[in-house]
Every structure is written in structure tokens, then in C-alpha cells.
Amino acid sequence: MKEVTIGIDIGGTFTKFGCIDINGKSYNNGVISTDQYDDIHAYIKDLHDEIRKCIQSANEELDIKGIGIGAPNSNYYTGQIEHAANLNWKGKVPIVDIVKQYFRDIPVLLTNDANAAALGEMVFGNARDMKNFIVITLGTGLGSGLVVNGQLVYGHDGFAGELGHVMVKEGGRLSGFGLRGSLETYVSATGIKRTAFALLADTNEESILQDFSYRELTSEDIYNAAMAGDNVAKQCFEYTAEILGKSLANTVAHTSPEAIFLFGGLAKAGDMIIKPAKKYMEEHLIPAFKNKVQIMPSGLLDQNVAVLGASALAWNDITQ
Amino acid sequence: MKEVTIGIDIGGTFTKFGCIDINGKSYNNGVISTDQYDDIHAYIKDLHDEIRKCIQSANEELDIKGIGIGAPNSNYYTGQIEHAANLNWKGKVPIVDIVKQYFRDIPVLLTNDANAAALGEMVFGNARDMKNFIVITLGTGLGSGLVVNGQLVYGHDGFAGELGHVMVKEGGRLSGFGLRGSLETYVSATGIKRTAFALLADTNEESILQDFSYRELTSEDIYNAAMAGDNVAKQCFEYTAEILGKSLANTVAHTSPEAIFLFGGLAKAGDMIIKPAKKYMEEHLIPAFKNKVQIMPSGLLDQNVAVLGASALAWNDITQ
Questions:
Q1: Residue in B165, B175, B184, B291 to test binding to A, most A beta-carbons within 10 Å
Q2: Which pick of A12, A29, A126, B159 has the fewest CB atoms within 10 Å?
């Protein structure tokens, strides 16, 4: 019998899952729709059936030691998804309790995707020997998971680690919550696009980016333009990295992590974002913190970190 | 036999100590000079002799369960005071090892004064039932101690929790480290004095504060002027609280504490600083954090929090 935990990643459109052993090896995996279910119970029933099928069709006999769920707006303490804008189920959804009805006597845990990514890094990735580190996920927005003393920081209410919403520019760009100057309005796939348009407005320089509409332009287009030598596109990365680096200096003053891991689309730009971010961070650190904190890509880039992280949430609970 | 821990507070001029039981009751206390000793060994020898005398002269027989030391630039992990500008002993001073030579078989722990204040709040003060909270000490500078999951946040290097050095104003006031816009250049006894001078420079309004030189003016003078109805002095508190509140909103996004305790001279201004700080913090929080986080005065105001906190450092280690 191979011991595995089930990692479940609930996205707005699809739900992915995998059977993962303690070394991060996947023994089987699957996917079902998320958004075709208006009824959470019908959804969990079908998800359960698919997971059972998946286990039965694996090449080895699998022993499920735990289930970890990563989902937006998730509360680790209550086991509830709370007011998730991108899911059909409104209000507070006690998903852990519902999953437990189908998988009796198996521990079930829930957290959000950025926290799951941090646990994935700790259990399977580059933070295996670290007790104090941070994972930043750069997607449409900016998510984060903070680890202190070897434990994920949930805070008193289960919602800690929302670095995308720290204010970095007084009176700056408008965020989804009506706040101004939030980090994720600058540092994210959307943020770098906003920067591209701000720079295009400001410059007289010719740029490949002038061919794109706001709706069309992606962070990948900006990356490709920068790689092709486009100066405005390069400035987009420099500016994004400057804001990220300064903000990370403030974060270091809070928890003094050994390393900060970047994950997600923008992180794939590698040195184009990491080197200047590191430079600006160092410039804004007090001497006690200088030349101590690494910024590096996640060790799980190009892997299904959401499923691995959810699995790690369960493994972390078992092995502690 | 009454079980106590010895709390030692090493300041630049004096070293204070006390024999404190688990309820925060002091059984005896004493003080020796700090700055008359150039030799750390002679200092610790005399400190030891004074502590022994203090124990012998107490009304009850005392059993020393541990020793906690609060000192500037202290590293909890290494037990060293590292490059403290205000102490005579330069470089790295292995003070825990030296103290252990005199108090054999007694656990000895070291941390900085703001961390000690946080532990004092947890063991003896208003955070006794809290697992996630923050203490801000408002003195000449701004110190902080962060508690997450019931543990003090030391970070990977022992220096976490330096909120006085987060940048709050791009290109703002110059700090001691040559950085610009650090929180403590606005929010501290020195910070509010700088604000007073900035406001006097900006206004045509008459103010009591116009009678003071920069060297003379204290935060207490500003407080007294504000209480007497001086409008500029009142604006000093409003501005200080605005910067504090906005910065605390960023801190809440990191660790989501249940409460933030203010300690030190400025904290004695009470509602004059706490009410507006709370208002500005709330305005800058995302909905997930709104109306959840209290800001309140330390439960140890007017007590010797430095000695209590150092004692709490030892008690916290014993009782865990």
C-alpha cells in the first residue's frame, strides 16, 4: 500500500486533484468541472466519485492518509469557503464538513491557494530545510503565504498573509476593494499591464506594446517584447521589480525570512524581475537584514503547485 | 520557596532587575550602573552579586527558575548583544554565556526590549488569552514585537519585528540608517517632534509650540499643548496617528493580529492617538480584516515593562 494524500485545487472553472506521496510523486490525478455545479452537495458527491475512481485505477494500491483542499477565500480554522466571488456557492460554504461526510475517518484541511503554495514549497520544494520563508504568487493578483517558526501564519482569523493588499503608493492605482495603491495593482500580471499603459502614456518612444489593446495585452506579451529588446517593455519589468523589492523590504522587517520564493506567470521572467527586485529590496533594508535574504523562483515552477500544495497541507498536518 | 524568574533590563545608563513570580508580582528589585563598566565581565560579576544580595534580602525564600535579559540589538538565537550603539561593549558580546558562568544550571535567555515587552504583555498583561498580537513601543524610536501562533516571531536570524524601519513615505524623512521615510521618523517621540516642526513651518497659525527650540521640545510638551487646545499640537497627533494607522493596516495584512498594543510615552496620549490611528487603519483594510483588530494601550503602562518583559521571556520558556 502506498501512502498518499489527496490534493484538491478548486478553481473557478475546474477542480483538479491528485494522489501525492510524501516525496511529491503523483500516483494518479483527475479533473472535474467546478462552475457547472450550483449545488455544493452534488459537486462534492461527483468529486468524491471521481477521486474514488482515480484511486481504483492507479497502478498501485493507495492508502489515503489525508485530504488537503486549496480554494479561494478559504478559512483554515473554520473549514469554510467564505464569500468567494469566483465560485457559484455564495455565503459561507462548510466544505470541510461536507467532504468529511464522503471520506469518513480521513483528516480534511482547507486553505487558500497561496498558503497551499507555501506549504508545497516547504514539503516538496526549495524550502524543505527552512523554518522562515515567504511565497509570493504572481497571477492575476498577488497572493502570499508566510511561514514563521516552521508554521504557516494564519493569524487570529485565518486570513493572514494578504501581501497583495499592502499599500505601496499613497493615492495610487485603484484596487478591486476600492483601496488605492495596493501592491497587486503594480506587481501581478494585471499590474505590469497597467504599468505598460502608464509608460506608453508617458513616453514618446516607439514600442511593440503600442500594437496591443488593453484587453489584448498579457504579461507574456510584455515579457516577449522585453526579450526582443523593447525598451518600454524592459522598463515595465524594472518598475514592477522596484515596487516589489521596496515592498519586500518592509515585509522582511516584519518576519525576517531566510528566502522569498516567487511563483506564477511573472516569476517565469526569472532574472528580469528577480535581479532588480533584489537590488531595490537591499537598498531599503536596515543593516541588520542586508545580504541575508534570498529572492528566488519557486522550486515547483511548471508543476501543478496548486494540487501539490493542497496535498502538502495534508502531509504537513500528518508529519508534525 | 517562591518560584521567580529574574528579569534584567539592560539600558544604556542603568541596568534594572527584579525577581518576578508567574503572576507578575515583584519580590525584590535593584539597579546597577551600565555605563561605568568598560569590561563586560566586571559588569556581570557585580550584577550577579547585586542579584544575589537582592534575593537574600527578600522577605520570602526565592527559587530562581530562569533569567531573562532584555537589551538593545539582542539576538535570541545566539545569546549575543550585537553592535549595540548605546553600550560600551563593542562587537558581539556573548552575554548569555557569561551570565551562565555565574548562575549555573539556570536557563538564561536574551531578547530585545520590544520583544520582551510583547512577552510581558502575553504573560502578565492584556494579551494573556491571545495567540496573535503585536506590541508597538513608542519611545525615542519605534520598536515592535510580533506574536504568531502564541510564539514570538524572531525570524531566521533573530532580528524580526523591526516595524520602526518599514518605509511609509517614499523619499520621506531621513532615518538613522540613511534610509528615507521609515515609520519611526514619523511615529515616535522624535517623530512627533519632527512633525511639530514641519507643521510650524507650514502654518501661519499661532501655537504654544513656537516657544520651543528643537532641542527643548518633547512629545510631552506637544501632548500638554494639545490638551490645552493648541491646534497645531492637535494636528501633530492627528498626523502621527494617520501614518501609524496606515502602516498598521499593512502589518495586519501580514499577520492578522487580534490586537495591537501601544506602549511607551506616546501611548500615554491614549485616545488622542489611538482613536485616529484606528480610523485610518480601518480605512486601509480590505473587507476580510475590517472591524476585527483592536488597537489599545498596553496592560503594563506605568509598570516597569522592561523588567517584567525580561522576566516573561524566562517564564514563557519554562511554561511552554
A1: B165
A2: A12
